[in-house]
Amino acid sequence: MDVKLSEIITVSSLVKKYDNKFLALNGLNLNINQGEIIALLGPNGAGKTTLISTICGLTSITSGKIEVNGFDVIKDYRKTREIIGLVPQELALEPFEKVINSIRFSRRLFGKKDDNKYLNQLLIKLQLFDKKDNIIKSLSGGMKRRVMIAKALSHNPSILFLDEPTAGVDVELRKDMWNIIRELKKEGVTIILTTHYIEEAEMMADRIGIINHGELLLVEEKNKLIKRMSVKTLKVKLKKSITKIPKPLEKYKLKLIDDGNSFNYYYNTGNMKTGITSLLSDMNDIGINLFDIQTEETSLEEIFVKIIKD
After folding, report:
1. Which of 28, 174, 224, 295 yields a CA-CA distance of 20 to 30 A from 253?
2. Full-model pTM
């Protein structure tokens, strides 16, 4: 039995048109569930950052409606901003301020009283505790990115937006960031992530949303999306090369490769019957012997590219 999830963000018929007539969002609808990680994918200029900015109250809405935890982002903007944390793409930090003072200042902006215990725990979690008295200018790019996350979490938000959080950071730090995101999810924080690293979305997200030209092309559970659209390739290496696909095997739509030494057979992972057993049986009947078999599966990146192209 499917468990009905509680929606924490509801975006309805959202339109954003700029003064130069550029239509950044075109009637977009999106529901985000409490406690999930949703990854928003799309090419540059697709509308991802504009969508985040409108939900966070940083960009005005041309038409439509956004509710956060039941509150309207325009009428109840104070209440909605209290429960949202945002880590933007650009590093916007006070270079000569100490780390702890910068984070404490962010907390006070939301009218929250100082809570040294909470902030220290936050710094420990983000591996910043030993840097808390350093001035921000002295930190590496990766550490500055962690400070941005600490500032976004300083007021105990239940929703966190991460706009390209691992852009420009090395592989090791990217993995650290993934661990941080997983820990936040365990604590019940709802996370909305935009990224150009498709493998990041594949590893982290519960659901995938794909945006292009200001429209949401789809939003679906990651595993269901991959199962529905993934195609597996069976590469059959032959003991003896052939010049063309024999007539009894034409129905399998095989692709001859490697100068006739191999062929590819494509099948959908969502189908109950793959046709592989039948293919191998027919090969045996006409005397074509295989030397080796390999399988490959479509990645989320290939699915993403196909959806955008289509």
Report:
1. 224
2. 0.78
